[in-house]
Design a protein that fits this description.
The structure is a single chain. This protein is α+β, with helices and mostly antiparallel strands. The protein folds into 2 domains: 5-146, no CATH class; 158-220, no CATH class. Helices cover 26% and strands 33% of the residues. It contains 5 helices and 11 strands; from the N terminus they run βααααββββββαββββ. The protein has helices at residues 16-19, 22-25, 31-39, 47-68, 158-177, and strands spanning 5-10, 80-85, 99-103, 111-117, 120-128, 132-138, 146-152, 182-186, 192-196, 202-211, 214-220. The strands form 2 sheets. A 6-stranded antiparallel beta sheet has the order 3-7-11-10-9-8, with helices on one face. It has a 5-stranded antiparallel beta sheet with strand order 1-6-5-4-2. The protein is globular.
Length: 223
């Protein structure tokens, strides 16, 4: 079954002091994952950024698997990140534009990861800059058919966030799928789905996320 999962974290909205307290991060990171910070070249990254990177990976993995297993309950510590790879050069740049979109991640500075949940093995791509972390999870290491988008919005109200991210995705999918009558709804389990208006047939799996003044989407159009 095709699926996708994504998550975005606004680094301007996190509580850095609280994040660095063991009572907080131990609910997200296992001792093995904490060792990744010290042993895999990530120590140059602020620890709070590392914690929220792993949160975004686990949240994205949960969204990916929830589409397949709707009864799944999110417990961050049960999602094990056992591999993280820094991008070559690790040049973290500011987010200087209001939105960016793409398909695949060719020629981009990305962080690669692998997440284990039970017998499932998932793969991740993350983009990090001083403003945000965005992660996308896939069932294979091939992300060529994964579309994604990130956008800065003007209002952090939850209802506004929800409307903005759906409009952002629909505008893209109209060009990708060549349909004007697309709508984003939810299935019985509350998972976002894209439908042709008047039809109950899902067109392709999508994932939506928002935090503070940022929204993001991913979709999977692999056959």
């Amino acid at each position: 079954m095709r699926s996708t999962g994504n998550d975005i974290v606004s680094l301007n909205a996190i509580n850095k002091t609280r994040t660095k307290q063991s009572g907080f991060y131990s609910k997200i990171l296992s001792p093995t994952e904490k060792n990744l910070y010290h042993e895999s070249g990530f120590a140059k990254m602020p620890f709070e950024t590392f914690v929220w990177l792993l949160w975004s990976l686990k949240e994205s993995a949960f969204k990916y698997l929830q589409r397949i297993n709707p009864e799944l309950i999110f417990s961050p510590i049960k999602f094990a990140v056992n591999h993280l790879q820094l991008p070559a050069g690790n040049k973290i740049k500011n987010f200087e534009i209001k939105q960016t979109e793409g398909v695949g991640f060719k020629n981009m500075d990305i962080f690669k990861g692998k997440i284990i949940f039970g017998s499932d093995i998932l793969y991740s791509i993350s983009i990090i800059n001083p403003e945000y972390i965005v992660s996308i999870v896939n069932g294979t290491e091939n992300f060529e058919n994964i579309g994604w988008g990130i956008k800065l919005i003007k209002n952090s109200d939850p209802n506004y966030q929800s409307i903005a991210v759906r409009e952002f995705l629909i505008d893209k999918l109209k060009t990708v799928l060549q349909f004007d009558n697309l709508v984003i709804g939810k299935n019985q389990q509350g998972i976002p789905i894209v439908l042709k208006e008047g039809s109950e047939e899902e067109t392709l799996p999508v994932s939506l996320s928002h935090h503070h003044f940022l929204v993001a989407y991913s979709y999977n159009f692999a056959v």
